Amino acid sequence: MPLPPTASAPLLRGLTERRLSRRGLLRGALGAAALAPLAACSVPGARKHVPTGSAEIAAAVRDFWTGKARKGRLSFANYTQYIDADPADQSRHPTLEAFTRETGIEVAYSELIDDDASWFGKTQPEFASGQGIGYDLMVVGGDSYLTKYIELGYLAPLDHARLPHFAAHGGAAFKNSSFDRGNVYTVPWQSGMTGIGYDPAKVGRTITSWQDLLDPKLRGKVGMWNDAVQMGNVALLAVGVDPETSTHADWRKAAAWLRKQRDAGMVRSYSTATYQSSLQRGDLWASLVYSGDVFQANQSGSRLEFVIPDEGGLLWTDNLCIPATATHPVDALTYMDYVYRPEVAARISETVQFVCPVPAAQQVIARDAAAADGKRRALLDSLSTSPLVFPSKADESKLRHLRVLDEAEEKQWNALFEPIYQS
To answer: Which end of the chain is more exposed for a tag (fewer CB within 10 A), N or C?
Structure first.
C-alpha cells in the first residue's frame, strides 16, 4: 500500500505490518487449517451452513432477518490501518463519522484482527457456545478460515434486498467468488492482485508470462514466496490451469513446474517479507508480488512494473461479514451497503489504496484530484489512473480466484508445495 504524503513514519510501519500480517495469515492458513476443522466440528453448537439451493437460501434469509430492526449501534472489528483516516488525527475515520451523522447509528470501531488464524481461534469457541463474539461486523480474508465460518454456520446469510448499492456499484469481478457463490455471506471490503513485479531497467525487456520466470538470463534474480497457498495457485496458472477447477493431477504438474524453476537456480529467495525491498535494491530483478506493493514502491521513487501474466493472475479479497450471533445485524447490514456508495468507497481507497471493489469510485477520486493541489493532487491523480487500484476490464478478465480446499485437500496440497521452498 502506498501512503498519503502526510503519513508519518509510525503509520508507514503500521501499513507495512498490515501487509505482512496478511501474508502471514495466507501462509498459516494451510498449516493450521488441517487441525482447526477437527476441533471446531467437535464443539457443541456448531451448525450446518445454509444449503446452496436458491429456495433454501431465501428461507434462511427470511428466518434470520424477520423481526429484526435497526437499534442505532454497531460494533465493527477490522485489521489495523484498513479504513480511511484523518491525516491530522489517525484515530478519526471520516466515513464512519459521516455514516453516524446520516443514519444515527453509533459505530464502536476496533482494529484488533491480526490475522485470520488467530481471529478464528479467538472467536470459534464463542461462536460455538452461542453466546456471541461481541461484534456485529468483521473483516475476514477469502481463505480457508472463511470457509470454516460458513461451514459451521457462524455467519448470517445476507438480505440482498437491503444491499442496493452493492448490487448497483459492486464490480463484477468482486461478486460470486469461489469461496462464497452468490455472495450469500460476504461482500468484499478491499481487494488485491498477485502477479509479477519487475525492474525493466534490470530485465531489459517486457515480462508478459509466468514462463519468463524460467528465463536463464534471470537466474538467481527471481523472488518467490514461502507461501504454499499463493505459490501453488500461481504455478497452476503457469501450467495453464484455472486454480478454481484444478485437479490433483494439475497440482502435481504445478509442483513440477516450481521444482524445475528451483532446480535451475532461478530463485534467489523464497520470502514474503523481503521481496519488495529486494526489488527496490536490485537484488531481485523480478518477483511474485502483490500489486499494492509495487504501487507503494513507485510512490517512493522506484520504477517497477506490475504485470498480470498472459496465463492469468490471482484476485484475492478481504470481506465484510455479519456474525450469526450479532446483536445489531440490521445496523451492520446498513453500513455494509453504505460503503458501496462510490463517494464512500473513494474516501476509503484514498487512504488504504488497495484494489477498490467499487469501479465508480475511480471517477470520484479523479474529481477530488482536480479540486486538490500539490502533493495531494499528484497522489489522487496516480490513484485514479492506476491499474493497480482500478484494474482495466482486460486485466480483470485475466484474474482468477484461489482454489478452495477441503481438509483432506489441504494436507495433499501442503505435501506437494511446502517442500519446494523448505528444502
So the answer is: C
